[in-house]
Amino acid sequence: MPARPDCALPTLQMTSFPDSFTLVAGSPSQTFLFALPTEQVRSGDASATELFELGAVMLRRKFYPAATKFLLQAIERWDGDDQDLAQVYNALGVSYVRDGKLDKGIAQFETAVKLQPGYVTAWNNLGDAYEKKKDLKSALKSFEEVLLFDPNNKVARPRRDALKDRVQMYKGVPVKSKDR
């Protein structure tokens, strides 16, 4: 896979594009440039990698429905190894979470860490998504998993410590059920 962006929720980095991409300017209200594999996408000949990179660009530009569309297409066409596929699922999870679809995002992060158990970025994203969902125990487990692979992780350590205190504080407090 040419570009390996880390898709942690706060940032997404994209460093290179294949030569087949062309630059397209946005509307006057959106003064940015981004790369599109225009001909391949239109003709349906875009590779899974090109679709992933296009999805990552759309994600970075906050075009979440477009990002989701291209990332789902990348997954359908994927013929590479599972460790790289985990990055596509992670990016798709980021797109869903940023678009307000927490449960769908969590499912994608879960798939990413099943495919690549040591993928700390996906574990951090999973913990973040669980915390947003107010599932503090699952968030805590996710951040603890990060620390098994990377004991000095600067994202997970403080989050885990804060969650430990919050989970302990709520121990024994009845939780409201959606069924009630």
Automatic annotation (TrEMBL):
TPR repeats lie at residues 86-119, 120-153. Keywords: TPR repeat. The keyword Acetylation does not apply. The keyword Glycoprotein does not apply. It comes from the Eukaryota. Signal peptide: none annotated. InterPro entries: TPR-like_helical_dom_sf, TPR_rpt. SUPFAM superfamilies: TPR-like. This is Uncharacterized protein. It comes from Hevea brasiliensis.
